[in-house]
Amino acid sequence: MWGQALIDIGYVRGKCDHLFATAQFMGRVTFVDDIDEKRHGLKIMINALEEEPEKMIEAQLTEDSLKRVKVGRIDIEYMSGKKSDKAIVSV
User: Fold this and answer.
1) What distance in Å separates the CA atoms of residue 50 and residue 53, rounded to the nearest whole number?
2) Residue 71 contacts residue 41 (beta carbons within 8 Å)
3) Quick check: is 27 in a domain?
4) DSSP three-state, residue 14
5) What domain range is 74 assigned to?
6) What is the 3-state secondary structure (H, E, C) of 48-74?
7) In which order are the strands placed within the sheet that holds 17-32?
8) N or C: which end of the chain has fewer CB within 10 A?
9) What DSSP letter does each residue of 23-49 carry, written as one string?
10) For residues 36 and 57, what is the distance between their CA atoms, to the nearest angstrom?
């Protein structure tokens, strides 16, 4: 599989430029069946996104929900990226 992640930092007014960061990757997707591996991956994601992760983990990561949810692990074989952290167009 091939994929891309993008962080859109935004348009720079008065410079006619756009700031961004990207990563392109290639790898293999494996769907995870092991409940503990699913829990581990989902905890990492919840901890990164939630202000009160423990509350969400307790509510969402039940044995029943972990059996129903599909989790894919991407084993990355190649990655590259770019970042534009300042405007380069001048008027």
Assistant:
1) 5
2) yes
3) yes
4) coil
5) 2-81
6) HHCCCHHHHHHHHCCHHHHHHCCEEEE
7) 2-12, 17-32, 71-84
8) C
9) EEEEEEEEEE--HHHHHHHHHHHHHHH
10) 13
Cα dihedral 75, 27, 78, 23 sign:
negative
Distance CA(18)–CA(8), nearest Å, equals: 8
Please give the Cα distance from 59 to 10 (Å, whole number).
Answer: 35
Q: Which amino acid, one-letter code, is at 68?
A: R
Which tokens in the block code for residue 7? 């962080």
List residues bridging with 29 in a β-sheet: 74
Q: Can you tell me which residue has the tokens 């991956």?
A: 41
Q: Is residue 60 part of a domain?
A: yes
What is the pLDDT tens value at each position of the chain, 91 positions in all?
899 999 999 998 888 888 999 999 999 999 999 999 999 999 999 999 999 999 999 999 999 999 999 999 999 999 999 998 787 766 5
| 58 within a domain of the structure (yes/no) | yes
